[in-house]
Amino acid sequence: MFGRKTPSFLLLFQMSLGQQQSTRGVPCLRCKGTCSGFEPHSWRKICKSCKCSQEDHCLSSDLEDDRKIGRLLMDSKYSTLTARVKGGDGIRIYKRNRMIMTNPIATGKDPTFDTITYEWAPPGVNQKLGLQYMELIPKEKQPVTGTEGAYYRRRQLMHQLPIYDQDPSRCRGLLENELKLMEEFVKQYKSEALGVGEVALPGQGGLPKEEGKQQEKPEGTEPTAPTTNGSIGDPNKEYVCELCKGVAPADSPVVYSDRAGYSKQWHPACFVCTKCSEPLVDLIYFWKDGAPWCGRHYCESVRPRCSGCDEIIFSEDYQRVEGLAWHRKHFVCEGCEQQLSGRAYIVTQGQLLCPTCSKSRRS
């Protein structure tokens, strides 16, 4: 009927379908050419063609990633790392810090230039400190354009910070009451857990940078005396990494977490998720139980995550088996996709299978 308003949860589902269609055909990085291109499953976050995850297809673009992180950081105390999009009706985008290094190389009479672009660099630091930080990251994980490190960062942005953990429009089938629960869930973690690590020399965390501009201080922190980015901290104090307990040299950058307090610091390679031990992508963390978590593992430590669709469960009616959880409608065999509620099933290595598919995979 004309004039009838479409329910918001149906609009969200329609938006999700449109975004899903635009990713068709993207090649799989894991399959190395054997996959015919991304073919979206109707509700799982996998490719129907090769069964690999969306992450292995790197479906997002730089712009989409920046929009996602912008959305995550907006309405939080880290919104200064975002910028308003012109005509975007309140949409904000991540002000991603990129670092470009150009070194002249003499080749006979014609000079050429070796240009290295880091697709992300720590915000608020000078180039010298930024390069020092990069040198302390494993080479295969340095986000240099066109390298495995850049692809690693892209995959980690999808894996550690799933868009459907923060944006209801990217979830499938949220009911009205579940939508409200999700909105409150996101609002709460932005207020109580979300953080962005700060790179500085030992003893310099939370202090003004060399431009002379006072950094925004987290609420409740004590004012500190100004210093210069690049100067060395108290030479009589020994700084120790919170994770490995190794000494942090006074002239070598460390990572600070304002939610942990500035008495704690981490070596750059030690600022990892306490659950999966993977480096925290773009230094974005969630603070819980005295440790930093990646977004994925923080969210599923608070609410169950569906092992079928990979989304956080906001319904109180769900299936739980051997520490894993499923939406009732997603409690289906991963092989033949028959509904398994009330039927025999086998859970092996996190896979839910009917007896027939389990037997065929073993043979």
UniProtKB/TrEMBL annotation:
Domain LIM zinc-binding: 239-303, 304-363
InterPro entries xrefs: PET_domain, PET_testin, Pk/Esn/Tes, Znf_LIM
Bias kind Basic and acidic residues: ranges: 208-220
UniProt record, GO biological process: positive regulation of calcineurin-NFAT signaling cascade; regulation of cardiac muscle hypertrophy
Signal peptide positions (record): 1-25
CC per GO annotation: cytoplasm; nucleus
Superkingdom in the source lineage: Eukaryota
Quaternary structure annotation from Swiss-Prot or TrEMBL: Interacts with beta-dystroglycan. Interacts with GATA1, GATA4 and GATA6.
Function: Transcriptional cofactor that restricts GATA6 function by inhibiting DNA-binding, resulting in repression of GATA6 transcriptional activation of downstream target genes. Represses GATA6-mediated trans activation of lung- and cardiac tissue-specific promoters. Inhibits DNA-binding by GATA4 and GATA1 to the cTNC promoter. Plays a critical role in the development of cardiac hypertrophy via activation of calcineurin/nuclear factor of activated T-cells signaling pathway.
Name listed for the protein in its UniProt record: LIM and cysteine-rich domains protein 1
Species in which this protein is naturally found: Myotis davidii (David's myotis)
